[in-house]
Amino acid sequence: MSARPAGTPHWDPAELPPQPPLHGVVTADVAVVGAGLAGLACAYHLAERAPGLDVAVVDATRPAAGASGRGTGLLGPRAGPSIDRAVQRFGPRTARRMHQASVRAVEDVLDLCARLDVSCGLRPGAQLVATRSRAGLTSLARQARAYRGLDLDVPVLSPLGVRARVGVPYSAGLLYRTAATLDPAALTCALARACAAKGVRFYGESPLRAVRAGDLVGSELVFPHGRLYAGQTVVAVNSAAQAVGLPVGTVLPLEVYAVATAPVRRTAYEALGGRNGYAVVDAVPMAPYFRTLPDGGLVAGGGTVTVPVGLGTDRLRAARERAWNWLGHWLRTLHPDLHDVSVLHRWSGRIGMTGDGLPVVGPVRGLPDVWYIGGCCGHGLALSVAHGAHVAAALLGEPEPGDPLPWHRSAAPRMPVQGIGRPLLRTALDALGRYTRRTC
């Protein structure tokens, strides 16, 4: 078994519906730009709830080519800042609703897999947030107090409690019961096929160039070789919104990294929770994490993030090599029987980061009938599906029960990431990454 070229994800491409490039003038009732999980979930729910609606999905490349197909498949509850910070910023009631919404988002993905009748490599299993460092222990203690104060079911694990689940000497952990691991590319492609089966049209290799208000209603979307006129539009392009000038605040592109191994020795696989499908995330910032694979291998990610804009090809290539090498080294420290494990896949992906750690899901200011979804800050596997369903309901006029969540908003805070702001941000992230890698 040989390693694939650098940049190739572990996940194999799946069958997709036809996606001709968009040429000429095209119309649709609803245009969805972006064939990741958020855009496809929105198109799926629109087609399911309003069968006669004419829905068109347009992507710059193809479904699953972006972040939705390049993730690591950890399906767990998290939305915005840690629970203790959410309590400080939004109050106990809203913080509790935020956590509950993220748990429902996980349950929605599990339900979606069942409705699509696809396995997507799904392995239900708890997620552990654990630590081996003093800083991580302090962070976990604050979070545990917040969960307890909000009467939320997130148990604290002692060192023995962690070792009973994964054989790594962590000092403590938190147990998230509603979680799973899966193949994110398989889920994205299955969702695309389900959309096509419901009559959704697909266009590929058509990057969005501009969004304009329509002459009378709706919007005009400009692509390299044509235009699409839609009554309603959903732009689910994450940080690429900056390139077309959408006024959604700062959604900063950050590059994150992952590796996958060959099947490991059975002792190591079972010790790291392979039989039960556990995923383990370190509690420190830029947390490294690992999960087991159905084929007996491991996936690891985290530990490093890079601001790719303006970095240059050679420096970006060097940053990737450093990140991948560190992840391989970190994986080998988790169990003695991993000392010679082979890394077969090394890849990276882009996430959208906001200044306050919250996504942006709402109507775009100044562009009637245009909605934006993005900025999940690395926690988009469950949230993206939930956001797509939320926007579909809004477009169909279905009222959202209760008060809006903090990320149901039109824009993120603006961040000074141009000019001197960008190297300062890069320096801060590099310093935080060095601290994380040294601590873990």
Structure, explained:
The protein has a domain at 125-180 and 252-354 and 423-439: D-Amino Acid Oxidase, Chain A, domain 2. Helix 3 crosses helix 9. Strand 15 (289-292) and strand 16 (298-306) form a beta hairpin. The chain has helices at residues 37-49, 83-90, 92-116, 134-149, 159-163, 184-197, 266-271, 313-332, 380-395, 421-439; strands spanning 24-33, 55-58, 74-75, 123-124, 127-131, 156-157, 172-176, 180-181, 201-203, 210-213, 219-223, 226-235, 252-261, 279-282, 289-292, 298-306, 343-353, 360-363, 370-374. By secondary structure, the chain is α+β, with helices and mostly antiparallel strands. 32% of the residues lie in helices and 23% in strands. InterPro entries: FAD-dep_OxRdtase, FAD/NAD-bd_sf. It is an enzyme of class 1 (oxidoreductase).
Main traits of this protein?
440 residues, alpha+beta, D-Amino Acid Oxidase, Chain A, domain 2, eight-stranded mixed beta sheet, 10 helices, 19 strands, oxidoreductase, FAD-dep_OxRdtase
Question: What gross morphology would you assign?
Answer: globular
**Biggest β-sheet strands, sense, barrel:** 8 strands, mixed
Mean pLDDT: 93
CATH superfamily of the domain at 125-180 and 252-354 and 423-439: D-Amino Acid Oxidase, subunit A, domain 2
CATH architecture of the domain at 125-180 and 252-354 and 423-439: 2-Layer Sandwich
Tally of alpha and pi helices: 10
Low-pLDDT regions:
none
Which percent range describes the beta-strand content? 15-25%
Name of the CATH class of the domain at 125-180 and 252-354 and 423-439: Alpha Beta
CATH topology of the domain at 125-180 and 252-354 and 423-439: D-Amino Acid Oxidase, Chain A, domain 2
The CA-CA distance between the termini, in Å, is 30 Å
Give the strand tally. Answer: 19
Helix content: 25-40%
Radius of gyration: 21 Å
Order of helices and strands: EHEEHHEEHEHEEHEEEEEHEEEHEEEHH
Protein name: NAD(P)/FAD-dependent oxidoreductase
GO molecular function: oxidoreductase activity
Keywords: Oxidoreductase
EC number: 1.-.-.-
